[in-house]
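Good morning N.,

You mentioned wanting to compare the apo and holo forms, so I went ahead and generated the holo version with nicotinamide-adenine-dinucleotide. This is what I fed in:
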Amino acid sequence: MSTLAVIEPATERVLAEVARAGVDETDAAVARAKAAFPGWRAVAPGDRAILLRRVATALEHESAALAVLEARNAGKPIGDARGEIAMVVETFNYYAGAPERLTGETIPVSGGVDMTFHEPLGVCALITPWNFPLAIASWKVAPALAAGNTVVLKPAELTPLTSLELERIALDAGIPEGVLNVVVGPGSVCGQRLVEHPDVAKVAFTGSTEVGARIAAAAAASIKRVTLELGGKSPNLIFADADLERAAGAAPAAVFGNAGQDCCARSRILVERSVHEEFLRLLEPVITAIRVGDPLDAETTMGPLISAEQRASVAAFVGDRAPVAIRGSTPEGPGYWYPPTVLSPVDPADRAAREEIFGPVACLIPFDSEHEAIRLANDTVYGLSGSIWTGDGGRALRVARALEAGVISINSNSSVRVTTPFGGFKQSGVGRELGPHALEHYSELKNVFYSTEGG
Ligand code: NAD
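and this is what came out, ligand included:
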């Protein structure tokens, strides 16, 4: 088997060499998952719960090392990586509660008893991106296993290391062989094979809208179940009646967190025109205080981008004539660095305001009325998240209901909680992850009628 070099983006050096899977290895993983399915679905719900809790405990035990590995491989500040691993532990603990709560209903009918059951789907293919590698893997693996499925996880080629660790940890914790399989290889080879494989019942994908569309089309041929978490171009609406200092203090983290490589990034900051200049003035010290540097340095608040290609793609949005209003600084030397950058004012028709940049570039766009703010916010093919900053409670809820997006926060930029549904409207996706809702996407509803009349 050939190998794949995994690069550390802060140093541009090889961090690890891992076995590179092709079609044969992918088929073998699916075969293992298929063979393990009857046994896993038959494990008593209480025992499945115990096993998932053991995985959570084992992950927690190794969380310090996992955070360092994630920080180095994905180039994220160590504090952020620790937070993500804590969320992985929480996700396994949360879904450990699910096997015993996946209850059906009894439905009043005449002539008998009608009841529903949540049946597992079979082998689920889980395909993940490089920006939150283990966190996003856990959002899929934990509910899939809780519902009684077996899985093949295909992490992004750039960041496979913590997913490989998860496979080892789960096996050591007692998850039976074949229940959780990880294949590392190119999306166009292993990912595509999983989507087309006749023994895969469901594909859960997180990644770009472009690849998501290809996956949905390929999965349609065999009517596979598909959930998609895709791109975003989310708005951050700042009304003049907001606590501007708080809003300006929070806005940068919502764009520059994970160096902007975040599907939920509030990268379009829509500001009421009367406070546009003041907002920009409040923003400046927060941006220039961002410390870009070594992910393992506790003082670092922003790391490098994931690759040279990603940096080139981000830089292409900030041409010579871009209205750069604020720009941070980066270290010298190796590493895929890019400074936090604010463009202002940006024409809503500009490419930078319309396409997902997936890097640390924010666009400030002025608006004149609530009506215009809503129109601009919704003027996108995406619909993942959004924030509303205002002191007027009625307006906050009015605007929240009007926004075409799946995850909205008011006077806050939070998007993701283990217990609440996460996912997009429009081209940001299909289905929901996290919370109880994710389980619906990893099971089929079965209806059983039992005649009490002998007929
Ligand atoms: P990507 O679409 O290039 O790749 C994602 C995964 O798909 C990788 O594992 C890749 O190997 C695999 N893949 C590629 N081609 C494939 C194919 N033909 N068939 C099957 N699998 C294939 O995305 P990326 O560059 O890794 O991640 C960035 C994108 O992910 C951004 O657009 C971002 O918005 C999105 N994202 C969305 C969410 C969300 O929850 N909505 C979360 C994180 C990232």
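The chain has a mean pLDDT of 97.

Happy to go through it together on a call whenever suits you.

Best,
F.
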